[in-house]
Design goal:
Largest sheet: 4 strands, antiparallel
Radius of gyration: 31 Å
Order of helices and strands: EEEEHHHHHHHHEEEHHHHHHEE
Number of domains: 3
CATH class of the largest domain: Mainly Alpha
CATH architecture of the largest domain: Orthogonal Bundle
Number of strands: 9
Strand content: 5-15%
Number of helices: 14
Strand order of the largest sheet: 1-2-3-4
Structural class: alpha+beta
Shape: elongated
Length: about 425
């Protein structure tokens, strides 16, 4: 059976178009084959592709009868929702990517989410190319979901060859994205449950973990970054390094996520005086897909907007590579941070990343005894997430308050609370 109508077709002999009710099929013999059998050809409008099949007879009358039987069989399958033409892995990846990009364009998904999905789908592509002889032309209906039980070993070996390791929860998240692509195919009747990826490893439930940051470590990080920024090779490099410092400063003073900062445009910022700014964080730039408005006090941001920033149109990004204001600063930032990390390694802070600036902001707000739900609102997260991620801070603060009070019991069984003077 041939389903690719884009291929160059051989000459067709004894071609006849036959109508069966509202349907039209073509039977013909191939001109490039001696004593060719008749072939059956019909356009499947539900799938917008052509279906062709040999009728295994050179007799014209018999070919007409077989064509009618083939049509009846096709129509019965279409009526029950079955897909007639098998989708290739290449076609599935293309269709799923277009579907996800459309969701990003409509604001249903963030661009960062789509970018992460593309990376994970790319891993699935490499895995299947290595494990399926037909590679990208593999029909997804022929893929057995049990094959993905080998994915963990494949992925572990893959990163080990580069001298690295990978956590199981990372692999699990990759597989969840890959499964979503196959579920998309199933929902569109392109495959059955049999093709949905399965795996048999488990991931222990753990709360989010971050390296503990001390005040000394954060100061060392900022001082090293400032020194590194002054070592720029040319004006363009200097502009980009100062932009990196601005991003770090804004995250440290606001608790914004990286995607929210990189998505920030001039129209999202309103100045209230020289160094106070009201920032509107748009839903499409937020990981949780919710907008919020925050107030930030920052001398650095004021200096950047008034004196340093080159791209000042309303729709330009606040941080962007020189001189293009339409391009986000993300790629340049992380490229430069790789260079900065070499310097951080000298003071044993090469594990530090941009998220730790948000982490530092939230930690300080909690130590300042701000209500947890206020911190969660300001940072666009949930109280549950704050309690899970910063349980060590909350426990430390709570037990410190416990130590400031003691109970004094009276002979009659009553008690009074006595505040302990701090030494």
């Amino acid at each position: 059976m041939d389903t690719n109508d884009s291929k160059r077709k051989p000459s067709q002999l004894n071609k006849q178009v036959i109508r069966f009710g509202t349907h039209k099929v073509t039977i013909y013999q191939r001109g490039d084959v001696i004593d060719s059998s008749y072939y059956f050809r019909i356009h499947i409008k539900e799938e917008d592709r052509f279906y062709r099949k040999s009728l295994q007879t050179a007799d014209r009358t018999e070919a007409r009868e077989k064509a009618q039987s083939e049509l009846i069989d096709l129509l019965s399958k279409l009526k029950t929702g079955q897909r007639i033409l098998a989708l290739s892995l290449h076609d599935l990846i293309k269709r799923y990517s277009l579907n996800q990009q459309a969701k990003a364009d409509s604001g249903e998904l963030s661009p960062n989410t789509v970018m992460a999905q593309r990376y994970r789908i790319g891993l699935a592509e490499k895995f299947l190319i290595e494990n399926c002889p037909a590679g990208l032309e593999t029909k997804i209906t022929s893929i057995d979901g049990e094959l993905f039980r080998q994915y963990l070993d494949w992925r572990t070996k893959n990163v080990a060859e580069r001298g690295k390791t990978i956590r199981r929860d990372v692999v699990r998240d990759e597989l969840l994205t890959i499964r979503k692509m196959f579920l998309f195919a199933k929902e569109n009747r392109s495959c059955t449950e049999k093709s949905i990826p399965n795996w048999d490893f488990s991931v222990e439930r753990e709360g989010a973990k971050r390296e503990r940051i001390t005040n000394t470590q954060f100061k060392d990080f900022i001082n090293t970054t400032n020194a590194w920024a002054k070592e720029a090779m040319d004006p363009k490099d200097s502009y980009h390094r100062r932009g990196l410092m601005q991003v770090i400063g804004l995250v440290s003073l606001s608790g914004m996520r990286s995607g929210e900062v990189f998505g920030l445009k001039n129209k999202d910022i309103q100045a209230r005086g020289r160094n106070q700014f009201v920032i509107s964080i748009r839903a499409e730039t937020s990981k949780v897909r919710r907008s919020r408005v925050i107030t930030v006090h920052s001398d650095l941001l004021g200096i950047w907007l008034r004196k340093s920033q080159l791209n000042k149109e309303s729709g330009d990004h606040v941080f962007s590579p020189k001189p293009d204001g339409t391009t986000p600063f993300r790629d340049v930032f992380y490229h430069l941070f790789t260079s900065l990390r070499v310097r951080l390694k000298e003071i044993d802070l090469d594990w530090f990343d941009l998220y730790h600036c948000r982490h530092w902001y939230i930690t300080n707000r909690l130590y300042a005894e701000e209500p947890i739900h206020h911190v969660a609102k300001a940072c666009g997260t949930s109280v549950k997430e704050i309690e899970a991620t910063y349980s060590h801070v909350l426990t430390e603060m709570t037990t410190a308050r416990f130590a400031q009070k003691k109970l004094e019991w009276n002979p009659d069984g009553s008690y009074k609370i006595i505040k302990v003077l701090e030494s």
